[in-house]
Design a protein that fits this description.
It is globular, with a radius of gyration of 18 Å. It is of the alpha/beta class and 301 residues long. β3, α3 and β4 form a beta-alpha-beta unit. Helix content is 42%, strand content 13%. The relative contact order is 0.13. The chain has one domain: TIM Barrel. Strands 1-2-3-4-5-6-7-8 form an eight-stranded parallel β-barrel, surrounded by six helices.
Length: 301
């Protein structure tokens, strides 16, 4: 049975599990081996005391890490005080398989899900194809999840537009459509200009989208790595950011310090401008995120 607007309220997701106000959440990616899993759990334990509103674990391209994603998400639900949001994508799944995964999350006590269309194997540059017995848009995935029980559903948003969207307005209309389908909140792709975020919120509002849009933050600790990730997602690292980091060359401590400063100033402007929360893409490391959290002080706690 589909949820009504009140029952799908995102309010609790903007609070720490204990009920206090929290202005941050964290995203991890599933580990590829035992050593990476140890690093992941070190980061989780180091970030746990910050009492984020929620944490999430991504799918790999094409759903390639589905089993590890679900396993780690379930363990977060059972072994920590953190509130996990389960990722789910349309790629490579029949509707029957999607129903099974949704049920698996529910059985683990996870009732907050992030519904994404997802990328094909090979990444965002590959032409997208729906599973023959699947669904082809995040809007349909939101509808499916909402039809299966008492879930709070989040979706993706794109300050620089989705790579396949014809223009910024078309992209904003898609976000509004996901809200109408039952989405209770959105989390953006990472970006580096606050004006891009505020413009997205304003555009979506013009099409009737009034759900909280949580800005996604990627602290730059390695310029080459983040530039590559931005290219794959169809966004960019602005020239003004590159010009601050390039002169630091291969000095990792200097790059990290400057990247943290850039992210802190971005977060400060977003929160002061009315952003409901901040979502940090941690890359399974905690140091930069913890430092930004400390820099923001009372704004984020």
């Amino acid at each position: 049975m589909s949820r009504g607007p009140e029952s799908r309220s995102p309010g609790p997701l903007l609070e720490a599990p204990g009920g206090s106000r929290s202005a941050c959440s964290f995203e991890f990616f599933p580990p590829k081996d035992d050593a990476a899993e140890r690093r992941l759990w070190t980061a989780i334990r180091e970030l746990e005391p910050l009492q984020p509103a929620f944490v999430s674990v991504t799918y790999g391209a094409g759903g390639s890490t589905r089993d590890r994603t679900i396993r780690v998400t379930e363990r977060i639900a059972t072994d920590t005080i953190l509130r996990p949001v389960g990722h789910l994508t349309c790629v490579g799944h029949s509707v029957a398989e999607l129903r099974t995964i949704i049920g698996q999350y529910a059985d683990a006590g996870i009732h907050n899900l992030l519904a994404l269309r997802g990328d094909m194997p090979g990444g965002p540059s590959q032409p997208w194809e729906a599973h023959p017995e699947g669904i082809d848009h995040a809007v349909r995935l939101v509808e499916l999840i909402c039809s299966l029980g008492d879930f709070c559903v989040g979706v993706a948003a794109f300050p620089e537009k989705h790579p396949e969207a014809a223009d910024l307005d078309v992209d904003a209309r898609f976000l509004a459509a996901k809200a109408r389908a039952g989405a209770a909140f959105a989390v953006t792709q990472f970006f580096f200009r606050a004006d891009d975020y505020f413009a997205l919120v304003d555009r979506a509002a013009r099409y009737g989208c009034d759900i909280p849009v949580i800005p996604g933050i990627m602290p730059i600790t390695n310029l080459r790595q983040v530039t590559r990730m931005a290219e794959l997602s169809g966004s960019e690292v602005p020239r003004e950011v590159v010009e601050r980091l390039e002169p630091l060359g291969d000095d990792p401590k200097a790059v990290r310090a400057e990247g943290i400063e850039i992210a802190t100033r971005l977060c400060d402007r977003l929160l002061e401008g009315g952003a409901p929360s901040l979502h940090f893409y941690t890359l399974n490391r905690s140091t930069a995120t913890r430092q930004i959290h400390a820099n923001l002080g009372a704004l984020i706690g």
